[in-house]
Amino acid sequence: MPTQHPSVAQARTVKDHISGLIARSDEMEELPVAMRYVMDNYTLTGAERELVCATSTVDLGTCAGEWFVPPQVKPGHHIVYVHGGGWFAGSVDTHRHLIDLLARTTGRAVFAPNYRLAPEHPFPAGLDDARRAYFHACAHGPAGPMEVASVALMGDSAGGNLSAALVIDLVSRNARLPDALALLSGVVDFRPPDRMPPGSDDPTCEPTTQTKIAELYLQGVTTVDDPLVSPAAAGTDILERFPPTIIQASSDEYLRDQDVAFAAALWRLGVTVHLSIWPHLPHAFHLFPQELPEAGRAVAEIAAFLEGVEAAPVDEFASVGAQND
């Protein structure tokens, strides 16, 4: 019999860990409590996480943000990272090791907000906080106010959703757009399909769960058809202004097909897009760099994409100054 490839076995181990968390969370009556249990334990596999960056905290008023500065940093070139967690869970702490890895691999200071979470703070509170963090990173560095050369925006899962929605929000404000966008297993379409996508192996989500999440996240403020909730629903006049974008997902994820469709929509409008589908990995696999070698390679791919964007001509919209709330 053929021997199973080591990375396949490693991915299965991580998936089994996640499935166990989901099974235990199913016994919890309240969805936000269950989601916070899963997110708080999502990466607790026993692996030792590497942390190298210097950190500092900034008060943004409605929330706090944290700078991650690698030992070898490229001054004035920033990343804003919006953590995932299903709009109800997660924090800078649950994603600390991934943010640290992104900063080290890209050589950029990363600013990550602890944005307000639903259901206590429904839409658009989290999006508003992401905007505040972005505007801060457009005009400040870890040491204070400065002239910023470039800002990339990125996030995983729900953080990817907020990142793509923030681009749409910035376009509507005619504000400075990010120089690049990275969606790591990002949710771009909140409108649930009738069934799980063919070939998916993802215990973290299913259509019925998405409907419940939407009800608690939106609380009647808007609907899943709103482009600030489902970025894939944005018009062509908005999508054509998206910055160069890299989209990464696993072939097994619930959201795989929506990410592929979103990349295709941007391509058709002439936006520079790099779509990267990694086979048979768990949702938000980037959070497991010690367990899955693909996680580190995916982060290196993001770093290479950012370098390529900087080497290309500057988009005309990148020169528009940042605006405050």
Automatic annotation (TrEMBL):
Residues 79-286 form the Alpha/beta hydrolase fold-3 domain. One of its GO terms (molecular function) is hydrolase activity. Keywords: Hydrolase. Belongs to the 'GDXG' lipolytic enzyme family. This is Alpha/beta hydrolase. It comes from Sphingobium amiense. The lineage of its organism: Bacteria, Pseudomonadati, Pseudomonadota, Alphaproteobacteria, Sphingomonadales.
